[in-house]
């Protein structure tokens, strides 16, 4: 994400090597593949390299329904890395839960790293997480933001982060979004958005900000207070109460979903939802799919950090 607080980080840096490991996959699709992406060479020092990996697990209560997941994260042309991500499986009140999240920091990496370390912990410890998951998500997101701001008191530098998360619980996917990272699903090869970006020029977001006493102006792009190019985020204490961490939640049945893509805007700035689904619908390894999406975004000129998680489902 680019805001007035972090545009100085756009100096071109050497690209990194993104490595991959074999990951089982449970998805096949006989639709035709898009043309091969350019073979972009990514090479740099080891200290610039960021992790790529994945795994496989079973949906709660069913050995016949499984999912595979893969992730890749890439500093790209930015001078520093402000993206973080989380992939975790945990038992909560006797039920297995999977959590996937992408966190895109601005003004520094502190907020995104805090979310990686604390958001799912706070969510899974909510007393109503299993029986009223949507309420638990809303309350855990808000409380995590409060906790972070309390810990940051006295720090002069302000920072924030988006959060796009997906919780797999039973036969459901619950997507919660704050900011302009994004979650997209594939159903029979069609791209289905599971989140809508929180941009200041979204009519409902602009109205909310103005009713709270804030303003939105054009400064290279639409910005809250002339500063921030997203209307919802964790952190950003100087822009409260205009920039909030209230999530928008969308629930989907897993049945019929081929895969989901969770990614930071370094991907979505240059690749549409439809293009992303088309690019990886025939790649059966979730980790390879995440890596290929990052390579394609970089080849198309993305100037931001790029982080991507792909989750594929096999309900046979």
TrEMBL record:
PPM-type phosphatase domain boundaries: 68-313
Enzyme Commission designation: 3.1.3.16
Keyword NADP: no
CDD domains with a match to the protein in the record: PP2Cc
Catalytic reactions on record: O-phospho-L-threonyl-[protein] + H2O = L-threonyl-[protein] + phosphate; O-phospho-L-seryl-[protein] + H2O = L-seryl-[protein] + phosphate
UniProt keywords, alphabetically: Hydrolase, Magnesium, Manganese, Metal-binding, Protein phosphatase
Gene Ontology molecular function terms on file: metal ion binding; protein serine/threonine phosphatase activity
Stretches for region Disordered: 25-57
Transmembrane segments: none
Entry cofactors: Mg(2+); Mn(2+)
Taxonomic superkingdom: Eukaryota
InterPro entries from the UniProt entry: PP2C, PP2C_BS, PPM-type-like_dom_sf, PPM-type_phosphatase-like_dom
Broad enzyme group: hydrolase
Family the entry assigns: Belongs to the PP2C family.
Protein name: protein-serine/threonine phosphatase
Source species of the chain: Lupinus albus (White lupine)
